[in-house]
Structure prediction request, 248 residues.
Amino acid sequence: MHVVLARDDAGAPEIFRSIQGEGPKAGLSRTFIRLSGCNLHCVWCDTAYTWNWRDTPFEHESGKKFERDAEAIKLTIEETAARAAVLSSEGFVITGGEPLMQRGVLPALIDALKAASPSSMIEFETNGSIVPPQDLIARTDLFVVSPKLAHSGNAATVALKRDALSAFAALPGAVFKFVARTEDDVLMASAIAKQYGVDAGRVYIMPEGTDVETLAARAAALAPAIEAQGFHLAERLHIAMFGAKRGV
Ligand code: SF4
Prediction:
């Protein structure tokens, strides 16, 4: 069995240990496994090298396209787990791209990670548009679900799937993290949370941006709306620490 990973700047599989920069576990040591491929195509995506291949029609604010062969690498489950396990941390974050595109092999990957590091937490970062299978739910401690709003450039019919969002909302171990540019985005997040019965304590609003100035300005502008809804403001600590780079 194989998994398709993104590559880091050196061309190696993008498996790295760092401080989690976003969401409810921000500030904790984690080992990240970044998978290649995404079913959505956000115009501001900061990992467009996982999906925006040359000769595809998808638009991105950067105008950049990527060569699939140069950006993706196939590894066995065993080798992927071994590379992650030697980095050891309190938990593994399986991210992307959209990791659930490879959901068929992910239970085996988690089993291999757990065999090497039994007490580690297993976390997923997902766009919430694919129904999580039961064999994945049973092996996962935390899903950080990031439904994509209109400013991402994805049609709501593609990004906001009722069956998938209902399935994640029903999991106590799932939180929802919305990327926001404006107060209207916070209100949209609120409407979605109410529609799916997600209480405010499980909702994080993360300003969109890939530099500290933009993030700080948007956080300040969004703060009143976030506070009014009782949501969490989610930072992007890795941007402040390392900038917008791969493998951090
Ligand atoms: S869902 Fe995530 S990985 Fe996919 S295009 Fe959007 S921001 Fe990028």
